[in-house]
Specification:
By secondary structure, the protein is mostly helical. Helices cover about 75% and strands about 0% of the residues. Helix 2 packs across helix 3.
């Protein structure tokens, strides 16, 4: 069944049944609940803070010491699906990288997959910023990420230097 089939079936429902269906979805599906909450009350700043906390907890959990990089990436992906401003999306992506760099500086070298994730997100963030003319707004933070990677292994610092110079050619 595809979207066209769903639309046909939904058109057959009267208003009350449609309201019941949406309410039922709201109760049973957390992502639907979050989407509809944002749709009804689009407080982007509050939503950003919530997802920023999720990214932070992926690196620095409230209990234990287990790094959950996948949860940080999922937070960015879920935030993006809600349709926030590109400014806040870029901010969250850069925060992910900043937090990852801080984590490395706090606990020492991680592994190649970790640095690959940081580098990929850094490039994606800067690409989005360029597209949306936000590079100047985030220039200091983007530069600080690079300077904070000095001494980190796996060629991470050198790669970020190259990426940074591609976007911020002086």
């Amino acid at each position: 069944m595809g979207l066209t089939d769903i639309k046909k079936e939904l058109k057959k429902l009267d208003k009350d049944k449609l309201i019941y269906l949406v309410a039922d979805l709201y109760k049973k599906n957390k992502s639907v609940q979050e989407f509809l909450d944002f749709y009804v009350n689009p407080n982007e700043r509050e939503l950003f803070e919530k997802y920023r906390d999720k990214v932070f907890v992926a690196f620095y959990p409230k209990r234990g010491y287990k790094l959950k990089l996948k949860d940080g990436k999922k937070a960015i992906s879920d935030f993006k699906k809600l349709g926030p401003s590109t400014d806040l999306l870029a901010d969250l992506m850069l925060f992910y990288v900043e937090t990852g760099v801080q984590f490395t500086n706090d606990f020492g070298d991680i592994d190649e997959g970790f640095y690959s994730s940081m580098a990929t997100t850094y490039v994606a963030a800067l690409t989005l910023m360029r597209k949306e003319n936000l590079l100047d707004k985030y220039a200091d933070r983007a530069s600080k990420v690079v300077s904070d990677t000095s001494g980190i292994g796996w060629g991470f610092h050198d790669y970020l230097c190259d990426v940074h110079s591609d976007f911020y050619a002086d």
